TrEMBL record:
Residue ranges that the Swiss-Prot or TrEMBL entry lists as coiled coil: none
Keywords: Ligase
Annotated signal peptide: none
Organism from which the protein derives: Actinophytocola xinjiangensis
The protein's name in its UniProt record: ATP-dependent DNA ligase
Amino acid sequence: MARNDDVEVLAVAGHDVRITSPGKVFFPERGETKLDLARYYLAVADPLMAAMGGRPVMLQRFPNGVGGSSFFQKRVAATKADPWLTTATVETPNGTTSSALVAVDLAHVLWAVNMGCLGFHVWPNTAADPDHADELRVDLDPAPGVGFPMIREAAAEVRALLAELGIACFPKTTGNRGLHVYVRLEPRWDGYTVRAASVAMARELERRRPDLLTASWWKEERGERVFVDFNQNAPHRTVFGAWSVRANPHGQVSAPFTWDELSDVEPPDLTVATVPPRVARDGDPWAAMTPQSLDPLLELHERDMAAGLMDAPWPPVYPKMPNEPPRVAPSRARKDTD
DNA sequence: GTCCCTG
DNA sequence: CAGGGACAACGCGGG
DNA sequence: CCCGCG
Ligand SMILES: [Mn+2]
Ligand SMILES: [Mn+2]
């Protein structure tokens, strides 16, 4: 570990990773620096790599820290300075390919930190197995006016349904206002199938708790409820990763926690400053994650299709899908003449 | 933050 | 050699 | 042309 005034060099995972401007303040609230951010990722390295290791990631970069200008970066190339960087090919819905960074070890993570990357958007597949999505992400999005108590209740409802189906799942804060619930999957299904399962789950959740949850893609139909964002499981879509840091003055983290903690978890309390001691004390809240079967949710989906339901609307940019209903908000739909 | 292109 | 732009999705379905 | 959605 060498050092001079402008550059800190960290020996990590067999590579020397440069952290330039280590003293630059990245998080104004408490003044954590770029080097503090690197130390944060070192402190959560074990659970971070369990969650993100081997996956392609997109960088969200703030070269001058929180409050500075920012941009996403998907394409990464190994340079002469860093010939060890590993990339993998990822695609967009229209087939465009990119070489994305793969989080193979903490050196790759810290390389990104040096580029001003606060957090990572993670693909639902490993680089080694691009044709299978091995993660189901239940994205709980509060409509305007919905507070965190309802989000907690929504997550408990997700857990109850999945438990009935024999599927183990694990929660994290998003770093913003919502929660994510993750299911590790056996690598047997592609992204289209995982999304179909997600549609079925969202609809079943709304059937059970229409007062609390909605599966409606169209905002005008959601009301003051929690939207179960099934489209976040569409092929090629990324999600803000576990242990990643938001561009918030406090450095709020997308922090995994245990179900026991659901009733008192407070997202603003989980920051780049508070999460490392939590991990040191409690270890990985997701340590028990093991690959699950998607079959129970696919049976739900088949039941809905047999009952005459259609697929749900896809996001913009995706081509029209078989059995997709018209992709238009109901209030704008052409009047049906039959 | 770094690269790459322009002037 | 200084300055500036690029760095993701941003095209697809409907009216 | 506009708008939808993250
Ligand atoms: Mn969300
Ligand atoms: Mn969402």
